[in-house]
Design goal:
This protein is an alpha/beta fold and 196 residues long. The chain has a single domain, classed as Rossmann fold, CATH 3.40.50. 28% of the residues lie in helices and 24% in strands. The protein contains five helices and eleven strands; from the N terminus they run E-H-E-E-E-E-H-E-H-E-H-E-E-E-E-H. The strands form three sheets. A six-stranded parallel β-sheet has the order 5-2-6-7-1-8, with helices on both faces. The protein has a three-stranded antiparallel β-sheet with strand order 10-9-11. Helix 3 links the parallel strand 6 and strand 7. The longest helix is centred in the N-terminal third of the chain and has 14 residues. The chain is elongated, with a radius of gyration of 17 Å. The chain starts with a strand and ends in a 6-residue tail after the last helix. One of its GO terms (molecular function) is thymidine kinase activity. One of its GO terms (cellular component) is cytosol. Belongs to the thymidine kinase family. It holds the Pfam family TK.
Length: 196
């Protein structure tokens, strides 16, 4: 029975690396996989999943108005899909999360999604909220704070390294813009007036 999986974490935990490794494992055994990535994440180029350690692979870019169930159904008509992988899953819409669930339930395609749980303000992304609500299996991918504790939060910085407390929820960036922290240190950085 196919399932919908959500692997979540903060920035720089290795989600894309895990996705690429899992897809490679299927392909090495002659099984077909489909890789999807949010079209707005063009850091490695549109339609490319890339990890910080240098692995990359072509992927199908999706936009908020794309019907992912219809896309997977059309691709499955061309040949069996052993697994579908979605990177930057936080950028999915709630409708798209349900479309992926239907692909698992009705088409029998396991769907493995990878993304951030919360934004730099500590708020859930809509795609992550829907995945946390309906995914069959949840997996936390861990990374560490500068203090050595598990990092669960992320801050956004400007070009001078100053912490930003306001701004649009979605702003694509990497190590140059985001720093992962444990909850305590995130709170101290975001709310220095109450850190005592």
């Amino acid at each position: 029975m196919a399932k919908l999986y959500f692997s979540y974490s903060t920035m720089n935990a290795g989600k894309s690396t895990l996705l690429l490794q899992a897809s490679y494992n299927y392909r090495e055994r002659g099984m077909r996989t489909v890789l999807l990535i949010a079209s707005l994440d063009d850091r490695a180029g549109v339609g490319k999943i890339a990890s910080r350690i240098g692995l990359d692979c072509e992927a199908l870019p999706f936009r908020p108005d794309d019907d992912l169930y219809a896309q997977l159904k059309a691709l499955q008509a061309e040949g069996d899909i052993a697994c579908a992988f979605v990177d930057e899953a936080q950028f999915l819409t709630e409708d798209q999360v349900w479309q992926l669930a239907r692909a698992a339930d009705r088409l029998g395609i396991p769907v493995m999604t990878y993304g951030l749980r919360t934004d730099f303000r500590g708020q859930l992304f809509p795609g992550s909220q829907a995945l946390l609500a309906i995914a069959d299996e949840l997996r936390e991918v861990r990374t560490i704070c500068e203090c050595g504790r598990k990092a669960t939060m992320v801050v956004r910085t400007d070009q001078n390294g100053m912490v930003l407390r306001e701004g649009a929820q979605i702003e694509v960036g990497g190590n140059d813009r985001y720093v992962s922290y444990c909850r305590r240190h995130w709170d101290e950085v975001m709310n220095p007036e109450v850190a005592n």
